[in-house]
């Protein structure tokens, strides 16, 4: 490449290049400019400043404060391949300079939806609990094993949040013909109703649903949204499936209420990951635990490269991206997700 060539900077940590890009996709990126790959560690300050005047596309989650953005006058897009809009970008400056901020989070909707359905079925029917009892020699048979079980068929189900993940779960529930209520203050009732669901208040979802899917991303407006009172307002024996972020709930209060037997809980996320070995969640009988694995499939990570490569090519042609999620100026600064530390 000539010294005046456009630069594409690839810094995917905590992802690895080989997990999300094929050799063919990397060649397609090289066709757009001078591709610089920093797989093991981010570029040093000197390395970044040397590339910044020619930087056009950044793929990764490195810090981009206003001072760095101003060093890159030709920057057109930043792709987050971790899956969240993180608070390490000066979004106001970036958006005012015409920089597209993009996230590959939509790739995780389908695999997490599958896991969420599996968790719901397990909580309703007591599958893994019966397995534990069998191994302990305390199993029960037939109806005695199902005294507290219930079916998803024609059940009342609820959603807290109704973004990509919620919309991916709903089609999987269709064979059960449930009644679904959804609460999402960022969406109009008409949108929720267009998906065959009923728009509802948070209290209506909690008090009327036998299973509640918590799929809302954590924001400045909903941290700790579900507290002890919220959990106690759920019907006795109801199930809570938490597959978005732990900060949406008061995690300790959730464990307290689950310990009483009032609700049963499945969670794929935790306030601290890895979860400490001594954490009491490991001992709860009304809990189904998953180590933040719901979306972490090799084929899912491979789709990140598909989305990024296609959208980068569109941007290079002067066209808008169409596969990745685009940061909206009205809401992007409200997100409070913590970055994942392991791909």
TrEMBL record:
Keywords: NAD, Oxidoreductase
One Pfam family per UniProt: 2-Hacid_dh_C
Coiled coil location: none
UniProt-listed InterPro entries: D-2-hydroxyacid_DH (IPR050857), D-isomer_DH_NAD-bd (IPR006140), NAD(P)-bd_dom_sf (IPR036291)
Domain D-isomer specific 2-hydroxyacid dehydrogenase NAD-binding as annotated: residue spans: 117-294
One GO MF term: NAD binding
Superkingdom, natural source: Bacteria
Family per similarity comment: Belongs to the D-isomer specific 2-hydroxyacid dehydrogenase family.
Protein name: D-isomer specific 2-hydroxyacid dehydrogenase, NAD-binding
Organism: Verminephrobacter eiseniae (strain EF01-2)
Biological classification of the source: Bacteria, Pseudomonadati, Pseudomonadota, Betaproteobacteria, Burkholderiales
């Amino acid at each position: 490449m000539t010294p005046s060539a456009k630069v594409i900077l690839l810094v995917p940590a905590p992802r690895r290049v080989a997990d999300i890009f094929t050799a063919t996709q990397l060649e397609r990126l090289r066709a757009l400019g001078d591709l610089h790959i920093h797989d093991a560690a981010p570029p040093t300050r000197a390395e970044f400043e040397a590339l910044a005047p020619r930087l056009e596309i950044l793929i990764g989650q490195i810090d981009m404060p206003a001072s760095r953005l101003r060093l890159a006058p030709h920057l057109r897009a930043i792709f987050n391949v971790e899956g969240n809009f993180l608070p390490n970008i000066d979004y106001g400056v970036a958006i005012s300079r015409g920089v597209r901020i993009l996230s590959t989070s939509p790739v995780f909707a389908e695999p997490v939806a599958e896991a969420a359905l599996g968790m719901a079925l397990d909580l309703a029917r007591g599958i893994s609990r019966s397995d534990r009892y069998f191994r302990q020699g305390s199993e029960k048979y037939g109806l005695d094993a199902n005294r507290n079980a219930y079916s998803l068929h024609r059940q009342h189900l609820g959603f807290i949040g109704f973004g990509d993940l919620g919309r991916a779960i709903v089609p999987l529930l269709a064979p059960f013909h449930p009644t679904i209520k959804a609460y999402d203050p960022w969406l109009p009732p008409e949108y929720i109703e267009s998906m065959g669901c009923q728009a509802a208040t948070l209290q209506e979802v909690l008090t009327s649903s036998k299973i509640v899917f918590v799929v809302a991303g954590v924001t400045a407006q909903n941290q700790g949204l579900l507290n002890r009172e919220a959990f106690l307002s759920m019907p006795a024996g109801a199930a809570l499936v938490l597959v978005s972020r732990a900060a949406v709930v008061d995690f300790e209060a959730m464990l307290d209420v689950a310990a009483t037997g009032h609700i049963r809980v499945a969670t794929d996320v935790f306030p601290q990951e890895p979860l400490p070995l001594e954490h009491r969640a490991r001992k709860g009988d009304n809990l189904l635990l998953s180590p933040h694995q719901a979306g972490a499939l090799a084929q899912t990570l491979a789709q990140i490269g598909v989305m990024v490569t296609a959208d980068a090519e569109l941007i290079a042609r002067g066209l808008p991206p169409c596969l990745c999620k685009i940061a909206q100026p009205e809401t992007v600064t409200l997100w409070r997700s913590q970055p994942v530390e392991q791909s």
